[in-house]
Amino acid sequence: MYRGINYLKKGYQHRTDIVEDEKGDLVADSHSILSSWRNHFSQLLNTYGVNDVRQTEIQIAEQLVPEPTAFELGMAIEELKRRISPGSDQIPAELIEAGVE
Q1: Whether residues 71 and 43 fall in one domain
Q2: Number of domains comprising the chain
Q3: Residue 5 resides in a domain
Q4: What pLDDT, on a 0 to 100 scale, did the predictor assign at position 5?
Q5: Which candidate, 32, 31, 27, places its Cα nearest to that of 16?
Q6: Does residue 2 lie within any of the structural domains?
């Protein structure tokens, strides 16, 4: 019912379904569009190179953000708002401020 009402309120809006296939050609008929999506997702989801996940080598990236200095931590603690509800860690700002040293 809501979908019908929204359609009537918006009126006719021209909609074109055009998709690029593997060759880069534009296809507009529904059968070609469905086969194009089927091919895309079968190539994306059906990988044949990895037999065992444990055998793959995991690369650990370098840390992008350096560790904060003691001065930066002190400044962040000073900027905490007092007398508000604690966040997801359930630690109030007053307790953090009391344990700075």
Answers
A1: no
A2: 2
A3: no
A4: 85
A5: 27
A6: no
Residue pLDDT, tens place only, 20-76: 888 888 888 888 888 888 888 888 887 666 555 555 566 777 778 888 998 998 888
In a domain? residue 42: yes
Could you list the residue range(s) of the whole structural domain that residue 88 is in? 67-101
In this structure, the answer to whether residues 41 and 71 fall within a common structural domain is no
Residue 75 Cα to chain centre, angstroms: 31
Which residue type, as a one-letter code, is found at position 63?
Q
Q: Is residue 90 part of a domain?
A: yes
User: Considering Cα of 41, then 43, then 48, then 53, what sign does the dihedral take?
Assistant: negative
51-75 in b/e form (b: 16+ CB < 10 A) is eeeeeeeeeeeeeeeeeeeeeeeee
pTM, entire model: 0.35
pLDDT of the residue at 56: 59
Q: Which two tokens stand for residue 24?
A: 């880069």
